[in-house]
């Protein structure tokens, strides 16, 4: 795609706005709670858009329309319904109210911290923190690589330069402002993603003769493209769309956003905003795929990732393509910084402060804690940049495995920990280790062509956690009251926090 100075200037202005907002929000960072979860003062709109922007990456904008191009609108409809229900409704209902309330009650800012107190062992901070920090890095590398690849395809700048540009922008608002910078800029990012995709969708679908014309043409060329299942088996539909909706339940970078919510009573507003945003985004990219099918005459592409850039280059003007470029930057940046922040939080907060310092009785003042948090975040970002400049050939596959491992490790301990009193420390440990191990083995055994490694890993995690919990002593009722009784006494809460620090 040939991009002129106008598009480049628009992208530079956009990134400058993000940097300015991040530097401004850095003034709010006075403590580690401010840095990691925005001091639990993030509003419902910011939370919803931050969640959506972190969930959607450049891969979704560039990679999903070709899926609809190849398989049709039946697959698109299935993915939209699954994504909206599981990722924008059910996950908020299951996690948001409880995680927000318990995170404040227990004074925790991470998934690892919650599990350590729920299951009365500080070892979960070390285990989960290590798992998160390691698995997030390839995930973040793939996200940054996706932005740099898109910038190279659209703007034509060298790949390595694209990585450096993204790193500088990320550094300016992530390292300085932490989650305050992320959540605030994600309002801009979320709006930019939705508007850019909707704008392109309206233009290209109009040029294809309208929705009816595009769908009619698609059905005449390939009848399966407009069938409810797109001619795919349920196993295929579930593996491609269902897994990525369910996998969100075990992703720390998404679940921890509920901890920063200003008030658990605003969850309804969060859900409504998230649903509207997700529908606008998903329907837009589905229409882009349908329009591409019509405008390109259903011609197969050797490189499917070229479909969207080519469509925008040939059928939109300079202003629209510039806005679309900003949308791609928004999707990639929001995902990258969410992953880097979560990884650095696992190293700094979980492993160093709450595990190492707790065991050595070393005290941390707020100022030093913030400085360490910023330093660790910067180091993780440098590691991601180096990995992005020199990515292994299998980075996309490795990032998919990383998401699967985290989903398999954490979904059962979180869900059962919140809703099942009988869950025990031994059961949780078995679930985390067994689920992640099965997911990794499944991946390296080459069985992902059968089903995503998240599926067997999560199934084993739930099974082991239930069986081992039933075979081990029940946790004390006084401890469980902290998690299941709204009016729990302060003494019980302090006792639970102390037990989770041993």
From TrEMBL:
This is Sodium/proline symporter. It is found in: Cell membrane. It is a multi-pass membrane protein. CDD domains: SLC5sbd_PutP (cd11475). It holds the Pfam family SSF. Gene3D superfamilies: Sodium/glucose cotransporter. It comes from Enterocloster bolteae 90A9. One of its GO terms (molecular function) is L-proline transmembrane transporter activity. One of its GO terms (biological process) is proline transport. Keywords: Amino-acid transport, Cell membrane, Ion transport, Membrane, Sodium, Sodium transport, Symport, Transmembrane, Transmembrane helix, Transport. Its main location: membrane.
């Amino acid at each position: 795609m040939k991009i002129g100075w106008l598009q480049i200037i628009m992208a530079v202005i956009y990134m400058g706005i993000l940097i300015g907002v991040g530097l401004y929000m850095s003034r709010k960072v006075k403590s580690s709670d401010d840095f990691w979860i925005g001091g639990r003062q993030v509003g419902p709109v910011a939370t919803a858009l931050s969640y959506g922007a972190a969930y959607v990456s450049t891969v979704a904008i560039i990679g999903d329309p070709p899926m609809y191009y190849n398989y049709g609108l039946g697959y698109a409809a299935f993915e939209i319904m699954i994504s909206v229900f599981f990722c924008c409704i059910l996950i908020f209902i299951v996690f948001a109210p409880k995680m927000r309330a318990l995170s404040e009650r227990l004074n925790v800012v991470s998934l690892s911290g919650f599990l350590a107190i729920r299951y009365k062992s500080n070892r979960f901070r070390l285990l989960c923190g290590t798992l998160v920090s390691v698995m997030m890095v390839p995930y973040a590398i793939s996200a940054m690589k996706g932005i740099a690849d898109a910038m190279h395809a659209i703007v034509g700048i060298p790949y390595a330069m694209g990585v450096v540009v993204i790193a500088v922008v990320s550094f300016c608002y992530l390292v300085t402002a932490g989650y305050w910078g992320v959540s605030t800029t994600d309002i801009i990012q979320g709006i930019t993603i939705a508007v850019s995709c909707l704008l392109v969708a309206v233009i290209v679908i109009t040029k294809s003769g309208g929705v009816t014309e595009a769908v009619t043409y698609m059905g005449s060329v390939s009848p399966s493209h407009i069938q409810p299942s797109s001619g795919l088996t349920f196993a295929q539909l579930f593996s491609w769309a269902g897994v990525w909706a369910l996998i969100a339940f075990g992703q720390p970078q998404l679940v921890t956003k509920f901890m920063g919510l200003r008030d658990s009573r605003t969850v309804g507003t969060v859900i409504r905003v998230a649903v509207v945003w997700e529908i606008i985004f998903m329907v837009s990219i589905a229409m882009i795929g349908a329009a591409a099918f019509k405008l390109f005459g259903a011609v197969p592409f050797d490189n499917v990732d070229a479909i969207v850039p080519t469509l925008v280059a040939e059928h939109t003007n300079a202003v629209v393509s510039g806005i679309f470029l900003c949308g791609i930057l928004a999707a990639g940046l929001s995902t990258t910084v969410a992953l880097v922040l979560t990884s650095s939080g696992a190293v700094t907060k979980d492993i160093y402060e709450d595990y190492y310092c707790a065991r050595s009785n070393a005290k941390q003042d707020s100022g030093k804690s913030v400085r360490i948090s910023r330093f660790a975040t910067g180091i993780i970002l440098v590691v991601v940049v180096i990995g992005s400049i020199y990515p292994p050939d299998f980075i996309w596959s490795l990032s998919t495995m990383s998401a699967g491992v985290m989903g398999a490790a954490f979904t059962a301990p979180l869900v059962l920990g919140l809703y099942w009193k009988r869950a025990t420390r031994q059961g949780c440990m078995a679930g985390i280790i067994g689920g992640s191990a099965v997911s990794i083995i499944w991946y390296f055994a080459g069985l992902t062509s059968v089903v995503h490694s998240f599926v067997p890993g999560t199934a084993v995690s739930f099974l082991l956690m239930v069986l081992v919990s039933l075979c081990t002593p029940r946790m004390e009722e006084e401890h469980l009251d902290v998690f299941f009784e709204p009016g729990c006494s302060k003494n019980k809460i302090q006792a639970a926090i102390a037990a989770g620090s041993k």
